Amino acid sequence: MISWNLSKPVETFLSAEKLNLFPAAKRPKGAYIYPAMRIESEIKLAFKDVLIRPRRSTLRSRSEVSLECTYEFRHAEGKWKGVPVIAANMDTTGTFEMCAELAKHKCLTAIHKHYSIEEWKKFTKEHPECLDYMAISAGTSESDFKKLVELVEACKLKMICLDIANGYSEHFAETIRRVRKQFPKKIIMAGNVVTADMTEELILAGADIIKVGIGPGSVCTTRKKAGVGYPQLSAVVECADAAHALGGKVISDGGCTNPGDMAKAFGAGADFVMLGGMFGNSKHKIRRPGHTESGGQIVEINGKKFKEFYGMSSSTAMKKYSGKVANYRASEGKTIRVPYKGHVTYTVLDMLGGIRSACTYTGQTH
């Protein structure tokens, strides 16, 4: 147990639950509320902590594996068919250029929210084939809602990605209910959360797909700045179990550094895997280059080409879109510069080939 307020002499400390047993007029004088700390002793796992055990397989080749899935949803009308891999809605990955390329592989792109209405209309008119493989992103502000309404109707968009860093805020569930009321037939993704209880709450509020992950991303520093997070593999296991019981789906968002991690995410119960660093400009044990389709300018240093990659809660992103880092905020992302290496299609083929290989090792044709 820990106390919340030690600025006054300690007289009586009660947990919130115990304090509520007393009527306001009869509460002990000098009683302060403190939160109850509970240490979870159950082991929680990240992708790096596990390997997939192989088993007998009748498959002779990776070519026998199909990665296409067909999904129905709890709230949305109709079905979605494609490869359940998503480029994250960061401005260095969730670009129109990325969407045009990934759509060729039937993969999704969550488009970042900083494109103008005119840019949206131009792209969807020129690339109608991308409509099945793109989601429009929005936050919880009134301006985001108005822009969302205009674009979904004007561009005939089918998927919506409601995205805030802290999916535990009460107003987020209210936003989901509002968007669901406005668009009863659209597919709605929402997040981020890492626990079963909030997965259930957001699905019941109107979300079809829950984004799971707080802090695992390659350029996310939330775990260091806020001390908040949850090992990604365990988060996916627990949230997927809760979502599937309600007819919902989950996205494993963040923490994948290679195709093997993607396979582990699917094995843990994820219906989709969302990638930032692997599509953009991540830098882990294996360097993943910046791609032509990633946002940002190519920078040349000592004859070598690089691209910048940064988190959307980084000081770089906040200064770019808000002019500064607000006094009440801390940067929860970092900016890195990594080698540039051409078109993303080669990375996509490598990822999908790795997942097919995992399927052959485990006897899965789909």
If you had to describe this structure to a student in words, what would you say it looks like?
The chain has helices at 16-19, 96-102, 117-126, 142-155, 170-182, 196-205, 222-225, 232-245, 259-267, 315-322, 345-362; strands spanning 12-15, 31-34, 69-72, 79-82, 85-87, 108-111, 134-138, 159-163, 187-193, 209-212, 249-253, 272-275, 298-301, 304-310, 335-339. It has 366 residues and is of the alpha/beta class. An eight-stranded parallel barrel has the order 5-6-7-8-9-10-11-12, surrounded by six helices. A three-stranded antiparallel β-sheet has the order 13-14-15. A two-stranded parallel ribbon has the order 1-2. Helix 3 packs parallel to helix 4. The N and C termini lie far apart (48 Å).
Radius of gyration: 22 Å
Strand content range:
15-25%
Q: Quickly give the structural class.
A: alpha/beta
Low-confidence regions: 1-17, 281-291, 328-332
What form results from the Cα inertia axes?
globular
Biggest β-sheet, characterized? 8 strands, parallel, barrel
- Helices and strands, in order, run as EHEEEEHEHEHEHEHEHHEHEEEHEH
If you average the pLDDT, what whole number results? 83
Question: How are strands sequenced across the largest beta sheet?
Answer: 5-6-7-8-9-10-11-12
* Structure annotation, total helices: 11
Question: Helical proportion?
Answer: 25-40%
End-to-end Cα distance = 48 Å
Number of strands: 15
